[in-house]
Amino acid sequence: MFFLKRVFCSLLIYLITVSSVLNATPFSACPSKAFLMQKEVAQLYGLNLVTGSYELLSGDLGTTSKINAVGFNFHDNYIYGWGYEWSTVVRIGDDYQAQDLSLVNLPAELSGVNFYVGDVSISENSYYFYRKGSSYGLYKVVLDSDSNDYLEVTKVANSSVINLNIFDFAFHPNTNNNNNHIYTVDRLGQLHKINPTNGNTTALGNVGQQGIFGAVYFDKQGKLYISRNNDGLIYIIDPEAANPSATLFANGPISGNNDGARCAIAPIIDESLPATTDYGDAPDTYGTSLANNGARHGIGDIYLGNSITAEHNAKVYPNTDEDDGVVFVTPLIAGTDSLVQVQANGSGYLSIWADWDRDGQFSATEKLVSDKFIDNTTINMLVNTPINALNGFTWTRTRFTSTQSVTASGGIADGEVEDYNVFVTNLGYSQIQDTPYYLAFEDNWPEKGDYDMNDVVIFQESSLLVNGSGEIKQIEFHGELKAYGASYQNGFAIQLDGILPSNVNSSLVRFEINGVVQETSAIETGTDNVVVFITDDIGSHIQLSNNCLYYRTEANCTNSNEMKFSVTIPFINAIDENTFPVAPYNPFIFAKEATYHGNLITQPGRELEIHLKNKLPTSKASETFFGQGIDATNVSANETYQSNSGLPWALAISPGSGEEWKHPLETIEILQAYPKFQIFSESNGASEATWFSLSNAENSKLY
Amino acid sequence: MNTYPKKNIILNTILAITVTSCGGGDEQSTKASEVIAATPLVTATQVTPSPKATKDLVSKSDFDFISKADLEVIIPTSPTGSVNYFINICTDFTAENDTVAINYNSCKLRTTLGTKEQSFSLFLSSAETLLVAQIWPIEVGAKPVTLFWNIIETGKQWKIDI
Question: How far is B34 from chain A (nearest CA, A)?
């Protein structure tokens, strides 16, 4: 009786166990993460290809041995692989328990043989596995349980057809050109394409990396990822490229035994889940977004400053990320030491790159700091800038991580990246930064406008490089479009009064819009004074949100796209500061050629300029427009761009560094939004000089 | 981007640190560890909508509608030739519990101290009346000397001594 009871209990336990395995449910979705099978007794990890970070999903897969040659089957959302304990195909569901499958018509040569190369076809719901050797080749097993051939094994090709020294392969996701081939990289770095119908192989070229690539994956875009066992480095390859090459993509886990699986039709970022990755925010030429293999880190306990942000993808310049861990206490001084303050949380290695030649890239040699170990503290560091670093603002990238020898791009499992725009100068030179201005224009000149002062609103910063004799060597403008409430098409430019264009060192002028170097010159030709020509059509640089007539002037019309510009203007001969104009200089808008600009002067083109009050027109402005409408310009008296009552069409407002000025909503007059503008105007500036402060505003009337 | 508390926090803090008043003439100077008295500049006011329309305003023809302040800064010579000294003069900062945090993006002047005094003309917002000067030796273990200036209280010429 006791014996029967034990048999019954054992049977019950067995049935419960078997039932549990047989009833294992598939994964609920096609996951963005990759699966990584490792260890002599199989353990399954989830791998974030974006950063290389990974986590243990299961240390007990219900086997006492390896599982290899794994692949994710998007047809049924199970993982399939080869179980060494049973020498057969196993299926793994969301309980992470391996279930051995009884194969049909198993060729005799496969009895007791194990496989470490395999994947599931995207197009035909079959598992393919391969072993090198004269007795073996490429095989497939049908996984469609409704098929008459379910679990039947077919030998696709023998060793005379396919004979590759490989350790994993992956099916193309079939998104381009009906590509349903298998891809792999062999030990010597040769990329191969395998035809799954006959086993024929095509060598596509050497990708430049050698080693045992034990885990191979595809993403939805058809990019191939290969993970090298001995160093864990993950490379990305475009197999469709004319000359495919492996680019370092992320630092992943190291393993002697490695096999990967992934749902190839999933993107590698799942935006339905909370973001877990920190990116930089420099222009994308530096490698910032994921598409450009941008610098990125899995967020955790190692970071810079007081906090770290997480994004699904980079907020590439002109957007910005929140960075607070690095302070350039001094500018970077060419040829000598400068001071940098770094606040590090956690222990890790700090590296800083700087674009000394301002070519939009961080080369391996453009390094300011290399692998400096910092242990959870704030330090002031001396850094040395090369003597040939170009003067002016340039981008730097700081990475802090537990991994040593990282590059300026690619994914890292932990740490943070922070990008900063930093000024480079020479010893003995001074940087004078003008107070920033908000430039607010009405574009109806010479007719009366609606005085909402938001037809064009531009935030303008300027910086001077002054030599030891107090002469101006270079001026640099940075600007940002804040609002465009214009119905007309306008351009924007800045005149440097009294500065001759012939004194500009044209070959060194640098002009960027949204971080992209412009091929057109920023110095307008044919003018008497230097005119910094930003654009002849501001509106072409922005996109309006749905149901919005204007850019950032209507309530509930927020535009995420931005327009920022920067121009660096070096002078051939330094200019005495007493003869150099002062901020805000002479910014102006002008009519775009061949566009309507009101009934009074219908298509004035470039000749119609609108400046700040009492600023001089350029030599390209037409004086025939003066005196029309309500304009009362008297150029000879230096009284320009004002009405009979002395009102301007443009304002330059400086709330101070770090402070913001908010422009009025569409059709709200400046006086209604800022009532103290009346006293300021009528006192001719003697009173209410800070009329523009937010504490003096009707906030409900501001954008 | 860094964010910094508003100016009234700064002002209150500076008031709480030290009060030193300098008098006489246009040229005044501060020494290390001195800070300048400050009075709150901007307080919340009751804003009354104007009954006028903007088009009805009248101004003189020579008034350009730009409000700004100017400041002449005289930079001292370097105290030693063996170490480079660097000075930042900035407008956006906080000073709390003897700790000064500066938004270096707000610095109006950044330069090296030389063998001669240097004079610079700076143009500021009319809302910027408080400034901080921080002088750093460019060396390992650097500690800065920090000075403050209030244009309203102490004038438009700042001669810095260390």
Answer: 21
Q: How far is CA A459 from the centre of its chain?
A: 24
Q: Which runs of consecutive H residues, i.e. helices, occur in A315-435?
A: none
- A654 with B67: Cβ contact below 8 A: yes
Residues in B 121-150 with any Cβ partner in A closer than 8 A: 121-128, 136, 138-142, 144
Q: What is residue A3's predicted lDDT score, i.e. its pLDDT?
A: 44
Q: What is the dihedral of CA A664, A665, A671, A674, to 10 degrees?
A: -50
Which of A88-102, A571-585, B24-38, B126-140 is least confident? B24-38
Query: What is the reported pTM?
Result: 0.82
More confident residue, A413 or B30: A413
Contacts (Cβ under 8 Å, ≥6 apart) of A251: A52, A232, A233, A234, A403, A406, A410, A411, A412, A413
Residue B4 in this model has a pLDDT that exceeds 70: no
Interface check for B45 against chain A (CB to CB < 8 A): the answer is: yes
Query: What confidence tier does B49 reach under pLDDT thresholds 50, 70, 90?
Result: low
* Contact present, A476 and A463 (Cβ < 8 Å): yes
The enclosing H or E element of A184 equals: strand A182-185
Task: Name all domains of chain A by residue range, CATH numbers in brackets.
Answer: 25-261 (2.120.10.30), 277-427 (2.60.40.1930), 431-701 (no CATH)
Q: Where are the domains of chain B?
A: 7-40+67-160
User: DSSP string of B85-122?
Assistant: EEEEEES-EEEETTEEEE-GGGEEEEEE--SS-EEEEE
Residue B10: the pLDDT is 41
Q: Is B150 exposed, middle or buried (0-12, 13-18, 19+ CB in 10 A)?
A: buried
Supply the pLDDT for residue B17.
34
pLDDT at residue number B3: 33
- Ranges in chain A, pLDDT < 70: 1-23, 175-177
The Cα A386–Cα A367 span in angstroms is 10
Judge: A671–B105 Cβ closer than 8 Å, yes or no.
no
pLDDT given at position A263: 87
Whether B70 has its CB under 8 Å from any CB of chain A: the answer is: no
Q: Is A327 on the interface with B (CB under 8 A)?
A: yes
- pLDDT of A271 reads 86
Cα–Cα distances in angstroms (integers) from residue B20 to residues A110, B133, B148, B153, in the given order: 92, 16, 11, 10
Count chain A–chain B contacts defined by CB atoms under 8 A.
203
Q: What is the DSSP string of A605-671?
A: GGG-EEESTTPPPPTTS-GGGTTSTTB--BGGGTB-SBBTT--BSEEEE---TT----PBPTT--HH
Question: φ and ψ at B96, to 5 degrees?
Answer: -135, 135
Is A696–B61 a contact, with Cβ atoms under 8 angstroms apart? no
Between strands A34-38 and A43-47, the pairing is: antiparallel
Question: What own/partner pairs with CB < 8 Å and gap ≥ 24 does B44-53 have?
Answer: B44/A695, B45/A695, B45/A696, B47/A675, B47/A676, B47/A696, B47/A697, B47/A698, B48/A675, B49/A672, B49/A675, B49/A698, B50/A671, B50/A672, B50/A675, B50/A677, B50/A678, B52/A671, B52/A678, B53/A451, B53/A669, B53/A671
**Which of A451, A658, A691 is nearest residue B106 as measured by Cβ atoms?**
A658
**Residue B47 in contact with partner chain A when CB distance is under 8 A:** yes
A451 → closest Cβ in B54, B58, B64: B54
The pLDDT-based confidence of B90 (bands split at 50, 70, 90) is very high
Is the separation of the CB atoms in A600 and A629 below 8 Å?
Answer: yes
Give A70→chain B minimum CA distance, Å: 45
The DSSP code sequence of A154-182 is EEEEETTT-----S--EE--S-STT---E
How would DSSP label each residue in A467-494? Answer: -TTSEEEEEEEEEEEEEB--SS-EEEEE
